[in-house]
Design goal:
- The protein is α+β, with helices and mostly antiparallel strands.
- The protein is 45% helix and 22% strand.
- The chain has four helices and five strands; from the N terminus they run αββαβββαα.
- A five-stranded antiparallel beta sheet has the order 2-1-5-4-3.
- A hairpin with a 4-residue loop joins strand 1 and strand 2.
- Helix 1 runs antiparallel to helix 3.
Length: 156
């Protein structure tokens, strides 16, 4: 679970993102298994979108694996009234953005990737602190291999 301080920071990042990109109608950060971390989605059920994002993420991960395209980075869906864009946010979260049809898709990607990186850093750092035992927190950190930026694989 992500601590409340980081959840507030993630929510603040979502609000800043929506302020920078006026044609965004919603922004949601969720765990890769579909639990809402923070959202700014007026008129949209965040829990349902997070669950659907997790399902789409599972398919996207399988597609990138099956086609040899590497680790999942992003998914873009276009409907008759706009876009749904999902971006990897660190190793255990995703950012889903809802955008109006008139949005500049290049700007959507630019801002979505930046926000996904920032949210991923916040969530991964919080989870890293939460996973360390209390005694290890006082000890100096030991060098480890660089963490993978890939999202966890879903069992098939």
């Amino acid at each position: 679970m992500v601590p409340e301080a980081e959840v507030r920071e993630v929510h603040d990042e979502l609000q800043r993102l929506r302020a920078r990109v006026p044609l965004l109608s919603g922004a949601l950060a969720a765990s890769t298994d579909g639990l809402v971390l923070a959202h700014d989605t007026p008129g949209v059920e965040a829990e349902g979108v997070a669950a659907l994002t997790a399902a789409a993420l599972g398919v996207a991960i399988r597609m990138t694996d099956a086609t040899g395209r590497g680790d999942f980075r992003e998914l873009l869906v276009r409907g008759g009234n706009g876009y749904i864009a999902t971006y990897a946010a660190g190793s255990s979260a995703v950012l889903t953005l809802l955008a109006e049809d008139r949005i500049n898709v290049g700007r959507l990607h630019l801002e979505g990737r930046r926000a996904g990186t920032r949210i991923g850093e916040l969530v991964d750092a919080a989870l890293g602190r939460a996973e360390r035992p209390a005694t290890a927190r006082s000890a100096p950190p030991r060098p480890t291999a660089a963490p993978s930026r890939a999202l966890p694989q879903r069992p098939t």
